[in-house]
Design a protein that fits this description.
mainly alpha, 2 domains, elongated, Ribbon_hlx_hlx
């Protein structure tokens, strides 16, 4: 969230119909905010939610155990993995 000392130099313009503007004004007034404050706060909440949904992985207890076990006790490399590593090493080495 922006700190009070930060300057706000960027601008976002939105075209909307009269009914949409009226709805936003009503909602903003219920929150005791300006329309700009209301729209920015609401948009930021939704943006953060979308980012969390796409960038955060949540595992159940059993799934976490399987994942943790695979990280702490990985299986020995099989032939396909050894071949892929050799190919990678040759391409990058």
């Amino acid at each position: 969230m922006p700190r009070a000392a930060e300057t706000k130099d960027d601008r976002l313009q939105v075209r909307l119909d009269a009914e949409s503007k009226s709805v936003l004004q009503r909602a903003a007034s219920y929150r005791h905010k300006t329309v700009s404050q209301f729209v920015l706060a609401t948009a930021m909440e939704e943006a953060e939610k979308v980012i969390r949904e796409n960038e955060v992985v949540t595992l159940s207890g059993p799934d976490w155990k399987v994942f943790y076990d695979a990280l702490t006790n990985p299986p020995a490399p099989n032939a396909a993995l050894r071949k892929a590593f050799a190919k990678y090493k040759k391409a990058t080495g």
